[in-house]
Amino acid sequence: QVQLVESGGGLVQPGGSLRLSCVASGSTFSITAMGWYRQAPGKQRELVASIANGGSFTYADSVKGRFTISRAYAKDMVSLQMNSLKPEDTAVYYCNAHWAGLTRDGDYWGQGTQVTVSS
Question: Is pLDDT above 90 for 118?
């Protein structure tokens, strides 16, 4: 089992910045990638950004150039620096850890943190 604890959400004005952090604990040796998803009201959960153990990145087109994901492997932590925030970035942001075993794989999720971009 892996537990994920997020921090850093809140209310920010358009054009502002926020930094989200997520710390993993438990069986972290099984993690192959960590990332962030978000879900706005009435919409499906979508990938924001992810980073694999080998260092490869994936970003949603809507956040490229504005968001930066980083990972501190020694601390089992993943962070998301969000700049130039827009109202459409408003959502609950979830930390994700993808794990893999010999014959199975799956995902762990954090509890979610609210990000609201509004003037």
Answer: yes
